[in-house]
Amino acid sequence: STTSDKLGFAIVGLGKFATEQIMPNFKACKHARLAALVSGSPDKAQKLAAQYELPETSVYSYDNFDSIKDNPDVDIVYIILPNSMHAEFTIRAAQAGKHVLCEKPMATSVEDCEKMIAACQQADRKLMIAYRAHFEPFNLDAMARIRKGELGKIKAITSDHGRPVKPTEDQADAWRVVKKLAGGGSLMDIGIYALNAARYLSGEEPVEITAQEFSDKSDPRFAEVEDNIHFTLRFPSGVLASCTSSYSYSEVKRGRVFGDKAWLDLDPLSDYKKHTMKIGDDEGNQEPEIEEGNQFAAELDHMAECVLHNKTPKTPGEEGLKDVRYIMAIYEAAKTGKAVKV
Ligand code: NDP
What we know:
Order of helices and strands: EHEHEEHEHEHEHHHEEEEEEEHHE
Radius of gyration: 20 Å
Strand order of the largest sheet: 14-13-12-11-7-10-9-8-15
Shape: globular
Number of helices: 10
Helix content: 25-40%
Number of strands: 15
CATH class of the largest domain: Alpha Beta
Number of domains: 2
Bound molecules: NADPH dihydro-nicotinamide-adenine-dinucleotide phosphate
Largest sheet: 9 strands, mixed
Oligomer: single chain
């Protein structure tokens, strides 16, 4: 297809995820193309603009970003900045007349999420939160099997997300241990995958949350943000989800759903590629054959199609807001030691 069939995306924040995972995947998209870059690092931005054959006039700084409203080549702005900056740039993008795709976590407070939703509503622009698992074939397949009753009645879910955060070795981790930029620790960054998975796998919204946090405060990485946080979500049907989130585990990103007929494992559940699914019951285990898909291209195309056909995204601002509300409840439960009704 030609570029004119596709909607133009401006990427805001040219960090690790933007440059390594998102930008290279536009070439696999049917309805999305890269159209502009917004960055605080002019040299890096110029280099990437040249590499992706974008004109110099399509490179913006954070200061002149608002002038993107005069660029008809940009339909959608994709925010890939540190968490606490998502709100400001979503609101500015909507006010510049652009639709917004924003990374998870949507923001670092419920109030910011509400402002983002309001700004996009006022400007009549779409707002989608980039929950890529909702576009990933193994996760979609798991949801379909669960809804069809293949596991029987769902009793429980467990999900663990952890990795060692390395702020002194990895530039992308430096802001993750600064509360003002990250909003919180492992929960905001990766525990959110467990939280979101518990919701889309159960197909329910939690009613009560309990949590415990444990972080070594003498470790400089955890002076401002949490390391380990374990939380339990109780759903209306009685399903309990037990989740763990950590910035010091060796890497893990898995989930398991326990039904009264069978269990289903996704390990990893939320990787960039190479997912696996296992289903087990009294008879033994099986690994269904599922084809890996390009979750990034599927997500970008979905955003573009929502704009093209005036549809509500599968993961709108309201979905991001829900998780941020639950995250705040998890922090409150951990702090008070009491169950929090949500
Ligand atoms: P990086 O630090 O690699 O990228 C963030 C970029 O934001 C920087 O490169 C920089 O770009 C810009 N920036 C502007 N102000 C600051 C600041 N004060 N400190 C640091 N960076 C700043 O982080 P990631 O790419 O890992 O994460 C960015 C966002 O993407 C986060 O919200 C994260 O949660 C999300 N993410 C989502 C993933 C997913 O799978 N969905 C995976 C990884 C991250 P520039 O130099 O161009 O200004």
